[in-house]
Design brief:
Layout: H1 2-21, E1 30-32, H2 44-47, H3 52-59, E2 63-64, E3 70-72, H4 79-96, E4 99-105, H5 118-128, E5 134-138, E6 141-150, E7 155-161, H6 163-166, H7 170-187, H8 191-211, H9 214-235, E8 279-285, E9 291-298
Helix pairs in contact: 4-8, 7-8
């Protein structure tokens, strides 16, 4: 009987330990606790429009050391993988002067509020109520991108803010590509590969948008099409349009001597439509009212 009690106590201890291991650990990142008297919100355009709802959103958002850019709160990366991702993020920020935040969580307590998507809400509030963003402020905040992996809801989102969103719409334009590529890795727990891909691909997309913005591509295409049209037209300036098909027919030159119906073959065509990962893209507003562009999906 004594052995049975010891065994039961061992199981209880193991369950408690397992539950604790699966809770989010913010201790490495949080630097202070927010309060009504000190929200630790430093962005003036947010402070100027604080309402009680926004205050509640700020209070429920961890106040972190924003010199850190990779918040693997859910513990999805090994130490080596974390160092590599941190290095890639830092290099991205220095090259492009755009902030980048990567966040993983096991537990999401933002169940309600200004939207019906807790994962999205967590990402927006985490970016908004901390000092993330670089460059000069525009109407929708400073320049940056945030990538969240939410294990509680099995969802991931990529959203950008400021110039990448309003001027180029980088995440919004490429979100379907991100979803299709990252979903298989996220489903099998290859979180490092998904993060590494996003950092590289987002930078490529951003650089492309800067170098070849949409309006330039459209203008170039129109100019090229006009040039080709003029060149082709000049080739046929001496050719006149016929007014009747009789101009091309030699009288009494066609005679039908044999009439026969022949069955040759039949064709059956099939089109494969592969299943796509559920996802969404577009612009959304955070609790502070600013606009984010992008989207995400389930895994």
């Amino acid at each position: 009987m004594k052995k049975l009690y010891i065994f039961i106590l061992f199981l209880l201890f193991a369950n408690i330990t397992f539950a604790m291991d699966n809770k989010d650990d913010w201790s490495d990142f949080v630097i202070a606790k927010r309060s009504e008297r000190n929200l630790y919100v430093h962005k003036q355009f947010i402070l100027d429009n604080l309402t009680q709802d926004k205050i509640d959103c700020a209070l429920s958002t961890p106040y972190v050391d924003t010199t850190i850019k990779v918040y693997d709160v859910a513990g999805l990366l090994s130490n080596e993988e974390y160092s590599k991702i941190k290095h890639k993020v830092d290099a991205f920020i220095n090259r492009n002067n755009i902030d980048m935040v990567i966040l993983t969580i096991n537990e999401n307590w933002k169940q309600s509020g200004y939207g019906n998507n807790p994962s999205q809400n967590f990402a927006f509030d985490f970016y908004e109520y901390n000092d993330f963003g670089r460059g000069e402020k525009n109407i929708n905040g400073y320049d940056g991108v945030i990538f969240i992996i939410d294990l509680q809801y099995r969802k991931f989102y990529v959203y950008d803010r400021g110039k990448p969103n309003e001027k180029f719409g980088v995440a919004m334009s490429n979100v379907d590509k991100y979803i299709q590529t990252m979903t298989p890795d996220l489903r099998i727990g290859n979180y490092y590969a998904a993060m590494s891909y996003l950092i590289d691909e987002y930078e490529n997309d951003y650089i492309y948008e800067i170098t070849f913005p949409v309006w330039k591509c459209i203008l170039f295409s129109l100019i090229l099409a006009l040039i080709l049209l003029l060149v082709e037209k000049s080739k046929y300036k001496n050719i006149y349009q016929a007014t009747s098909a009789q101009n091309y027919i030699v009288p009494n030159s066609f005679k039908l001597t044999v009439k026969r119906d022949s069955f040759v073959r039949t064709f059956t065509t099939k089109t494969y439509n592969p299943p796509s990962s559920s996802g969404s893209g577009g612009r959304s507003s955070g609790s502070s009212g600013g606009s984010f562009g992008g989207g995400g999906g389930s895994f």
